[in-house]
Design a protein that fits this description.
The protein has about 190 residues and is of the alpha/beta class. It contains five helices and twelve strands. Helices cover about 25% and strands about 35% of the residues. It is globular.
Length: about 190
């Protein structure tokens, strides 16, 4: 059974842990650099990306994660987690940083602010239609040639990727952990 960590500084931590438990995987809460030892993969949950970035820096996890991810640690980032993984962040706050591990350019709140949150079915390559919960979701504006687009959504302004993968790095604009469907957690953990 793979050892999967869930970054536990802020955001949808318990929801991701519950999804992992639903598929028989123990989610380990990660709050300190030494807890990264021996992990097979890690989940960056949704939440508030600037707060998470600040807490990563002050906890000492930023440099440890940069090193581990650069050396191949598989990561699944949902919503704010996608922002933290992206190559470039548009409409970010001053001093906004990211790990630059996933060759995508994302726009914070690309589908609107909190009041514009919505649910929409998403057709995922190889899976079928799944529920998508979009809360202040980042929109993927551009992506590199090595990024595989697994799902797109047309929210009235043309289709944009909402689930991508580049090697061991997965990025998702929406919140699969807020549904009753563990499909993404199964895909991620089965790839470890």
């Amino acid at each position: 059974m793979p050892r999967v960590g869930v970054l536990a500084l802020q955001g949808d931590v318990r929801e991701h842990v519950a999804m992992l438990h639903a598929i028989g995987v123990t989610g380990e809460l990660i709050k300190r650099p030494e807890q990264l030892e021996g992990l097979d993969g890690i989940i960056f949950p949704g939440g508030e990306s600037t707060t998470m970035a600040h807490l990563l820096a002050t906890s000492g996890l930023q440099l440890a994660l940069e090193e581990r991810v650069a050396n191949g640690l598989p990561v699944l980032g949902t919503c704010a987690g996608l922002i933290l993984l992206s190559h470039k962040v548009l409409d970010g706050r001053d001093q906004q940083w990211s790990l630059r591990a996933l060759d995508v350019i994302v726009r914070r709140n690309g589908y609107g602010r909190q009041i514009a949150s919505f649910e929409s079915p998403v057709d995922v390559k190889g899976v079928g239609v799944v529920p998508g919960v979009f809360i202040r979701a980042p929109r993927i504006e551009a992506w590199g040639k090595d990024v595989e687009v697994l799902a797109k959504l047309d929210h009235g302004d043309g289709p944009h990727p909402v689930l991508v993968r580049q090697g061991a790095i997965w990025g998702c604009s929406f919140h699969p952990e807020l549904t009753n469907d563990s499909w993404l957690h199964q895909m991620f953990t089965s790839s470890l």
